[in-house]
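2.7 Reproducibility. Because tokenized structures are sensitive to small changes in the input, we list the exact sequence used for FAD-dependent oxidoreductase, including any N-terminal residues retained from the expression construct. No trimming or masking was applied before prediction.
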Amino acid sequence: MNDTHILIVGAGPTGLACALELSRRGLKPRIIDKGSDFTPEAESRALGVNNRTLQLLAPSGVSAQLLAQGVKAKRVRMRNEKGRDVIKAGFDHPGALYPFVLILPQGRTERILAAALRQYGVEIEWYKEVIATNGNPKKPVLDINAPDGLESIRASKVIGADGASSVIRNGFGFSFAGESYPTEFGLVDVETVEPFATDELFVDFSNDGVLARMPLGGNVCRYISPRADISNMLPKDLEIKHLIWQSSFHINFRYVEKMQRGSVFLAGDAAHIHSPVGARGMNLGIEDACWLAWMIHQNTDADYSKMRMPQVRMVIKQTRQQTDALLNLGGFGRFARDHLANTLLKIPAFKKRALTRVTGLDTPEPPWIDGSV
Ligand SMILES: Cc1cc2nc3c(=O)[nH]c(=O)nc-3n(C[C@H](O)[C@H](O)[C@H](O)COP(=O)(O)OP(=O)(O)OC[C@H]3O[C@@H](n4cnc5c(N)ncnc54)[C@H](O)[C@@H]3O)c2cc1C
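Resulting structure tokens (single pass, no recycling of outputs):
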């Protein structure tokens, strides 16, 4: 039996951010992952890095790296079923920390986080899979399948950042209620022959459904649609030079009842999953991670669940409303989009309210940022 103070299970964006924020405060967690490497860079997955995440990862120096490597989407443009541009709005609302949404493949974000973590002497222990727990959150013990045999770890604190199918969540008896949607989203990352606007998010409504385009740098972009047969949704005149990655996925809206039991904490997709509309998944997980690390350092981690659950519920509610609106845009929704939205977005207070969601600044301000602890 090995004793460890803090054990983080999962080296995705959430686990890495938590390990980094603990390490920079002088704590030395162990971080294990059943995989062998980071998310491949060609599989873009979570692309949108919002203002809140950039604020949270600034003290570690990670945000400077993200900003240097990412693409800055400065505005959103929406076209209606008649081919008319109906919404054009910048992300530069009063109060925004950065007047853009940063776009970066998830694997690149993970590598930047891991490089910062390495500076504190913490290395990810790959090929280590939690296969069982003792089910006792007050004195957690994990059984781990490691390359050199089975290992049992008794930890003072276990942080489950092991994604949507979390073994930690299931092993320590957390509920994960919610709903699965029948809709299957399709996405494809392509390099195009012709250039396109690389500083905008473009959403195209047609009678066949909705298709969004996000710039990934150069002539590379992602198309995403709530239709699995996304190839049929792409513009007819689009010339593809290189198909980089294609995927489809079902969406779920689920979250735990609480994010902590005894000495076991959940963060990121292990605690909450929702649709990619609004690009909040990875950002919310990084935010959980940063708050948890700060609260552990402050010795206030007993309040972690109480602090984070309202944010989780709020984001799930918002993404669900946004997803439902996108999937079933009725007559009034179309009217508002085509005739009201652009005018309203010219009013600073309205624009600020609308864009706080995009920027992620609708969650509580982290109190440690100015003091830099
Ligand atoms: C197609 C797609 C597009 C998306 N777009 C966006 C977006 O634009 N913006 C956004 O914010 N989010 C987006 N998301 C969501 C985002 O990818 C997730 O929210 C994010 O990856 C969650 O990070 P995480 O670290 O919590 O979990 P994960 O990234 O799932 O990491 C969990 C880690 O735990 C490890 N693990 C699992 N089980 C075990 C075990 N038993 N033992 C040891 N290790 C284990 C896994 O190997 C993995 O490395 C998107 C998701 C998809 C699928």
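Residues 2-71+107-181+261-368 form a domain with the FAD/NAD(P)-binding domain fold (CATH 3.50.50.60).
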